[in-house]
Amino acid sequence: MSDIGDWFRSIPLITRSWFAASIAVPFIGKLGLVDFRHLMLVPELVYNKFHLWRPVTATLYFPITPNTGFLYLVNLYFLYHYSSRLETGAFDGRPADYIFMLLFNWICIVITGMLMNMRLLMIPLIMSVLYVWAQFNKDMIVSFWFGTRFKAHYLPWVILVFNFIIGGSFVNELTGNLVGHLYFFLMFKYPMDLGGRSFLSTPEFLYRYFPNKRGGVSGFGVPPSRRPAAQEQAGGGGGGGGGGGRHNWGQGFRLGGE
């Protein structure tokens, strides 16, 4: 048990909290401590009865049955693996930015779930995080089941097909991929590679509660930094057009490479 405790404490804080809640809430429903129907997203109850907890619990709850248990465990592993990699890699020392990414993705997924009458939101949020990780590490070669190897850029779509085979649906995975793409495009791709307006930025109050930290592990899929406009002009010699070259999104972390 001490080994399990040590392993659990080694998980970065934000991922650890999300991981623990994604175990606790499904087991609360499984054991009947709370009627599982109260944990699912039901738009009319949110609108009319003000069941404001449902968007949160629907993101953490997953029904554990003989038919769904394997799918649940697989996605719980994806949560642990890729959220840990992001938190200690691209978002290392920047907990506010990572929390903002999770909040943005969660809000988009909740809105989509309300419009599409989706009851469970765990898989979409996990897939959105996995998609962002894959974008930061898109040229890295990853290994999947049966020794298949491909660039991380394709991983979210391979997992979409994989979950469709074992779970019979792809709507959750597709929703997560699209939301992850929206975040990455608005936060990094559009303002940096395409020279467009910056639509997303982490609110200052998150920095007050979760200040940046120095040190830690870095170098695994590090996102580009946004240079101030004055620095752009000083370094660009006339600066027209947003400055040449594309950004390096980082080399990433080799999946399964101990």
TrEMBL record:
Its main location: endoplasmic reticulum. The chain crosses the membrane at residues 18-40, 60-80, 101-134, 154-186. Keywords: Endoplasmic reticulum, Membrane, Transmembrane, Transmembrane helix. Functional component of endoplasmic reticulum-associated degradation (ERAD) for misfolded lumenal proteins. May act by forming a channel that allows the retrotranslocation of misfolded proteins into the cytosol where they are ubiquitinated and degraded by the proteasome. Residues 221-258 are annotated as: Disordered. GO terms for cellular component: endoplasmic reticulum membrane. It comes from the Eukaryota. This is Derlin. GO terms for biological process: cellular response to stress; proteasomal protein catabolic process. Belongs to the derlin family. InterPro entries: DER1, Rhomboid-like_sf. It comes from Seriola lalandi dorsalis. It is a multi-pass membrane protein. Residues 234-258 have a biased composition (Gly residues). It is found in: Endoplasmic reticulum membrane.
